[in-house]
Amino acid sequence: MNIEIKISKKPVDYKKAEQIGNFFRENKIKIDKVLSSEWCRCKETAKIAFKDFSTNSFLNSFYSPKYAKNRSKQIKALKDYIKMLMQEGLRFQRIKFKPAYQKDLL
């Protein structure tokens, strides 16, 4: 299951973040670990929605020319992380928080 949630352009949409957390709690979706990029808005959203989370640089954006040089390194690190999870028999879900004004980049 992939879940896509659109968030407005505001710095942090607190109501949406709370709704995200409530959705998981109300539907009794078990969460073992929440990962976020190191970007402030992502961390704030994760904190509001799930309280407990950790960051990892492989989730940071690389679409800006300023960060494009990190793309290959980040993708490799993410693939290695997923491979490690799978070897440990863990399942994971990808949840993409996509700004409402952003075109789909994937």
Give the topology, please.
Blueprint: E1 3-7, H1 14-26, E2 35-36, H2 40-50, E3 54-55, H3 71-87, E4 95-99
Parallel strand pairs: 1-4, 2-3
Helix pairs in contact: 1-2
Features:
single chain, 106 residues, alpha/beta, two-stranded parallel sheet, two-stranded parallel ribbon, 4 strands, 13% strand
Q: How many alpha or pi helices?
A: 3
User: Segments where pLDDT lies below 50 for 5+ residues?
Assistant: 100-106
The rough form would be described as flat
Strand tally? 4
Quick check: average pLDDT? 79
The main pleated sheet reads as:
2 strands, parallel
- What is the helix content? 25-40%
Give an overview in words:
The chain has 106 residues and is α/β, with parallel strands linked by helices. The chain has one domain (3-99). Helices cover 39% and strands 13% of the residues. The protein is built from three helices and four strands, in the order βαβαβαβ. The strands form two sheets. Strands 1-4 form a two-stranded parallel ribbon. Strands 2-3 form a two-stranded parallel ribbon. Strand 2, helix 2 and strand 3 (54-55) form a beta-alpha-beta unit. Helix 1 (14-26) packs across helix 2 (40-50). The relative contact order is 0.20. Residues 100-106 have low confidence and may be disordered.
